[in-house]
Amino acid sequence: MRSWSTRSPAPGASPEPRGGGLGGGRLRLLQARARLALRSFRSGMAVFLESRLGLLSLLTIGVFALMAVAHPILMGTVWDADTYDPVTGYAFDATEQPAPPSWKHPLGTDPLGRDVLSQLLSSTRSEFALGITAALVTVTIATTVGAVSAYYGGLVDSFFMRFADLVIALPSISLLIVLSALFDLSLFYLALVIGVLGGFGGTAIVLKSQALSIKVKPFIEAARMAGGGQFQIIFVHIVPNLLPLSLLYMMFTVTSAIFAEAVLSFLGLLDIRMSWGIMIHTANAGGYLLSGTKYWWLVFPAGASITLLCSAFYLAGRALDEVVNPRLSRRDG
Amino acid sequence: MAEAGGRDSAGGGRAAPILRVEGLALRYLTRQGDVRALEDVSFALARGESLGLVGESGCGKTSLANCLMRLLPDNARLTGGEVLLDGEDVLLLSEDEIRSVRWRRISLVFQAAMNSLDPVYRVGQQVLEAIEAHGVETTATGGRERVARLFRLVGLDAGVFERYPHELSGGMRQRAVIAMALACDPDIVIADEPTTALDVIVQDRILRELKRIQEELGISIIYITHDMAVVAEVTDRVGVMYAGRLVELGETASVFGSPLHPYTEALMSSFPSVTGAKRPLASLAGEPPDLADPPPGCAFHPRCAHATALCREQRPPRVGLGDQWAECWHPLAADAVPLGGD
Amino acid sequence: MQGDGETVRTPDQPLVDVDGLVKLFPIAGNVFRKPSGFVHAVDGVSFRIERGESLGLVGESGCGKTTVGKLLVKLLEPTSGSIAFRFTDAGGADIPGGRVDPSTLKGRQLRDFRRQVQLIFQDPYESMNPRRTIYDTIAEPVSVQGIGSALDRVDRVAEILSLVGLTPPSAFLFRYPHELSGGQRQRVAIARALILEPSLVVADEPTSMLDVSSRTGIMSLMQELASGLGVAYLYITHDLAVARYMCDRIAVMYMGKIVEMAETEELLRNPLHPYTRALLSAVPVPDPGHHRPPPAISGEVTAPVDPPARCRFYDRCPLATRSCETSPHPPVEEKARGHVVACYEA
């Protein structure tokens, strides 16, 4: 064995005693990693919040999150299910349906006598679930597909990229309409379909081009020199470097998922109990959509929520872009 | 270039400085705090002289070049000093006025030749544009003739006019960039690492070419480089920069012969040579200081073998030996004398 | 060192024996078309490296020196020619599976090979994954090779960090590459290359992107470690002055060919090939009093795309004769002891 592995003192160096300070165990290793993660999260957050858009979008998303949490609490305390259930409730106190906003029903009731605020709040939860599920599916698929096709190139790459072209070429809304007409699409399956379409489509292409630029970096060769196999290189070196960009596209996927849900629900094609799209659909079915601003509470709260939450996620993505692609750092003076 | 030759004879000897920099200070405002990129930098440049500025990356040499050209990023703040070009303070000029100085009086040969040429335009066209933009030649034929003369001057074939940057070798691109810097007959050319990316044989040619052009046109050149060997070969005087300060300045021969500042000596003795006996290379421990939080006293003291308590606490005085001076409490030549408040 | 007194080695069993190595890169062409030509990046290169020896590979950019390095560590596959490694234990005795031809290796064997041959990259900024800590970076070879437990690795990495002069190790273990200076990063790169205790390290311009003051530190560190650990280097550089300090022997490459090879001081004092002479006389000298004549060489380097059969240096050579034009590229001949040159006129 050579000098350092036999623990003879190295020339001009004094190794720290074994077990002292560093050899403290797996826990210390984990602690160190947790500290690092926290630190990079903090500095990323600082950049994110420095842009007004980031702060604004975060606040908006926060408000919606509060709304989502508020619904079950209200239902459990002040709202009785008979009156306030978003789907089966009926406002017996109102003389006509839809009733305009009142103290008991701050956003009025819909043509079927259901409380609009309750509908709005209960939908928020499903919108989040939908958006986040779709985004996770998209990003998981797109990151893997991007990294794999960049790493292997050749036939694998051609296959995935042509498939991506196909997915992009398909008009996704029409495809969703067909799918939902054929099958009863629940929220979860809708999220899955949107996620898969996004994951194999444009996002995969973007992430692949990013993965290509990572693949040619010397540190990939360094990983090969270490003896790393395909798995090590793809999932330890390429994928983590894709994650910031993936996160960005996650935000955009949330936006498009919520939007797609709204369109499909509006067309009455989804097997969903309640959502913002369904609220607008109900107003439309009763013929209230075209009656100008007289029945504004039937359309405006849901419409504004869709717009706000979509743009909040979109803007969060833009602000995240600042974190992911910081302006070139100066090296020389 | 006839007018350039005339200027040379009228300019007189080394004695009349064309450029004086006095107490120049520059900061960059960053997230991490104010970076003191330049502190109290003073030197003079004579007509026809070549001055080398050496130092490691981050020592402020490129910032200094950008100050002289007034090409500073938005977060840069000049906090003191003056840059006198023929007695006129360049730092006080308006944006409009500086444009008549930039390129026409002082021009810059950039570090990365590929990046300073636009890949989508023909090389000749780019030089022509530089000429026309500064109103040196107004007629089309006059401009073209000037480009042809410039190309001949830097040793480029006339055919290069019609070529694109990517069709040229590294050396040819660097020549084209030099032609561009000379396009408006400047008095001073700042060459920022002009040969760093080039192979030795090409570097040798470019440096010889620059030297010849300098003698032919009588211009002054400021070489900014990290390469002590290049400095030794092409400059008349040399300034050594460390942590945003000029720590030593003097005739190249005397600085190399007997450096006053320990940093200068460290730089020189860490430079390998292919000639002469193989002497051991000295290495300099530690890292250059963080300019957002420079050490008190002499900025070099944490890495200096001669450092004492005095160095750690008080800014070193300027000490001189003939034309050569350094900022150091313990200059390496015993006969160096303090220079009274320069 | 060659001919080092103590250990008796049979001269025909070097650590690595490279014979007639060729690497051609096809130009353009696609799936449907044949390539329009080949860049002869490495064109019949032969050399040997003894155990613990440092061989310098010197030449200008594009001469093929980096390609030779990558072929040696099997980041590229040769078009033809052979590379034969002979790994031994510290005493010089054969070890099982010690005779290796990298071109045949796969899987487990390739991983074993990686323990013996490592690479130090030129760019300390790009050769480390920016999202992994110094610990992860240095420990990667051991963890991929499955050596030791996670806890042993922390100790081992800490130990090698202090060995490469990054002390105290705890101040570096859990930092990211971008928080370190260029010199410090290159020390990390050296640690990563040495943690597997390789027999050969290919160092591809390890100091060319560093500042003057950190460069010397890296150079002496590499020398100390080489003598301490018995590592052999293939030291790739464009800088003859650096090669003088780092190498026992120097091979000069021009357009994919080794044109001259000799022990370092012999090569610098007595260069025989006109290209070596030109290269040597173009190196600036850090002495203002020294007058250096211009190098005797014309023209510029061209890419070796399907070069004519004659001497590669013919177009730029000050000594070229009529017979040089019609003869094939000159064979490598031994002109003095251990001093080989590929030139008819030298």
Concise synopsis of the structure shown:
Chain B is α/β, with parallel strands linked by helices and 342 residues long.
Order of helices and strands of chain C: EEEHEEHEHHHEHEHEEHHHEE
Strand pairing plus helix content of chain B: what structural class? Answer: alpha/beta
- In N-to-C order, the SSE pattern of chain B is HEEEHEEHEHHHHEHEHEEHHHEEE
Query: How does the overall form of chain B come out from the CA principal axes?
Result: globular
Strand order of the largest sheet of chain C: 6-7-8-3-9-10-12-11
CATH architecture tag of chain C: 3-Layer(aba) Sandwich
The number of helical runs of chain C is: 10
Biggest interface, CB < 8 A: A-C, 40 and 49 residues
Question: Helix count of chain B, per DSSP?
Answer: 12
Rg of chain C is 21 Å
Number of strands of chain B: 13
Tally of discrete structural domains of chain C: 1
- By CATH, the topology of chain C is Rossmann fold
Choose one word for the global shape of chain C.
Answer: globular
Looking at the chains present, what oligomeric state does this protein adopt?
A: heterotrimer
Largest sheet of chain C: 8 strands, mixed
Task: Tell me about this structure.
- The complex is a heterotrimer of chains A (333), B (342) and C (346).
- Chain A is mostly helical.
- Chain A has a single domain, classed as MetI-like fold.
- In chain A, 69% of the residues lie in helices and 0% in strands.
- Chain A has twelve helices and no strands.
- Chain A has helices at 26-50, 52-76, 81-84, 116-152, 154-169, 172-182, 187-200, 202-215, 218-225, 230-266, 276-285, 296-324.
- In chain A, helix 4 (116-152) runs antiparallel to helix 10 (230-266), helix 7 packs across helix 10 (230-266) and helix 10 (230-266) packs antiparallel against helix 12.
- The longest helix of chain A is centred in the middle third of the chain and has 37 residues, at 116-152.
- Chain B is an alpha/beta fold.
- Chain B has helices at residues 2-11, 61-69, 95-101, 113-116, 123-133, 140-153, 170-182, 200-217, 228-234, 252-257, 262-269, 309-313, and strands at 17-30, 33-46, 50-54, 76-85, 88-89, 106-109, 188-192, 220-225, 237-242, 245-251, 318-321, 324-327, 337-338.
- In chain B, the strands form two sheets. In chain B, strands 6-7-8-3-9-10-12-11-13 form a nine-stranded mixed beta sheet, with helices on both faces. A four-stranded antiparallel beta sheet of chain B has the order 2-1-4-5, covered by helices on one side.
- The longest helix of chain B is centred in the middle third of the chain and has 18 residues, at 200-217.
- Chain B starts with a helix and ends with a strand.
- Chain C has 346 residues and is an alpha/beta fold.
- Chain C has one domain: Rossmann fold (3-Layer(aba) Sandwich), CATH 3.40.50.300.
- Chain C contains ten helices and twelve strands.
- Chain C has helices at 65-72, 107-116, 134-144, 150-163, 182-194, 212-229, 240-246, 264-269, 274-282, 322-326; strands spanning 16-27, 37-49, 54-58, 80-88, 94-100, 117-120, 200-204, 232-237, 249-254, 257-263, 333-336, 339-341.
- In chain C, the strands form two sheets. An eight-stranded mixed beta sheet of chain C has the order 6-7-8-3-9-10-12-11, with helices on both faces.
- In chain C, strand 11 (333-336) and strand 12 (339-341) form a beta hairpin.
- In chain C, helix 3 crosses helix 4 (150-163) and helix 3 runs parallel beside helix 5.
- Chain C is globular and about 70 Å long.
- Chain C starts with 15 loop residues before the first strand and ends in a 5-residue tail after the last strand.
- Chains in contact: A-B, A-C, B-C.
- Chain B binds chain C through residues 56-57, 169, 171-172, 199-204, 207-208, 226-233, 252-253, 256-257, 266-268, 270-276, 278, 281-285, 287, and chain C through 60-61, 181-184, 211-217, 219-220, 238-242, 244-245, 265, 268, 278-280, 282-290, 292, 294-295, 297, 300-301.
